[in-house]
UniProtKB/TrEMBL annotation:
Record organism: Flavobacterium aureirubrum
Protein name (record): Probable transaldolase
Pathway assignment: Carbohydrate degradation; pentose phosphate pathway; D-glyceraldehyde 3-phosphate and beta-D-fructose 6-phosphate from D-ribose 5-phosphate and D-xylulose 5-phosphate (non-oxidative stage): step 2/3
Top-rank lineage group of the source organism: Bacteria
Main location, first listed in the record: cytoplasm
Length: 218
């Protein structure tokens, strides 16, 4: 499973990249705003800064909601850096734009996916990635993991190449459960990746090893 980090914070991206397990970055307009990145030129420069840190795909989301605007913005985004993936909303216009870009060989990520039908449509339009929002479904008492499983089954039925990018991952168990289902990629906060390191028996075991070594090497 590929690990993406879902942030626009350069320090967090550097930390995840430094771990040696990072495969890409996803951003969205909320995450950019959270970092105080505003104004077109600053936003475009920030995407390039992210691409220069990570070895892998970087999803940059269009703001336009009409087809022509999405194409215009998407083309501007892909011209920035070869690692850019055009992130498009799961709307009629977004699906048309996805088909346009996939026909041109440009990588796409269809975002804001909350049903298996939407994921099927994204695959038909040739999306590189489809982003079902696991955590946001859990937030409204709907089983987000069940959706990931449904999409996995549908894509496997037809050998669709679209990669399931489990998004809105909130914690370590989301990561583990997505891996069990066979999601191709997960994107979450740095804490969801670092959480995988933790086990009390690891800490206790290491403390014991070091203490025993110290006793024998006084
Ligand atoms: C996906 O690409 C989104 O950026 C994201 O995962 C949203 O997560 P949230 O529900 O935690 O905001």
């Amino acid at each position: 499973m590929k690990f993406f980090i879902d942030t626009a914070n350069l320090n967090e991206i550097k930390e995840a990249q430094g771990l040696g397990v990072l495969d890409g970055v996803t951003t969205n307009p909320t995450l950019m705003a959270k970092e105080g990145i505003t104004g077109k030129n600053n936003i475009l420069k920030h995407y390039v800064d992210i691409c220069n840190i990570v070895d892998g795909d970087v999803s940059a989301e269009v703001i336009a909601t009409d087809y022509d605007g999405m194409i215009r913005e998407g083309e501007e985004l892909v011209d920035l850096h070869e690692q850019i993936v055009v992130k498009l909303p799961m709307t009629k216009e977004g699906i048309k734009a996805c088909k346009y870009f996939s026909d041109k060989g440009v990588k796409t990520n269809v975002t804001l996916v909350f049903s298996a039908g939407q994921a099927l449509l994204a695959a038909k339009a040739g999306a590189t990635y489809v982003s079902p929002f696991l955590g946001r479904l859990d937030d409204i008492s709907t089983d987000g993991l069940a959706l990931i499983q449904e999409i996995r089954d549908i894509y496997d039925n037809y050998d669709y190449e679209t990669q399931i990018l489990a998004a809105s991952v909130r914690h370590t168990m989301h990561v583990v459960n997505c891996a069990k289902i066979g999601a191709d990629v997960m994107t979450g906060p740095l804490s969801s990746i670092l959480g995988l390191l933790k086990h009390p028996l690891t800490d206790i075991g290491l403390a014991q090893f070091l203490a025993d070594h110290a006793k024998g090497n006084k």
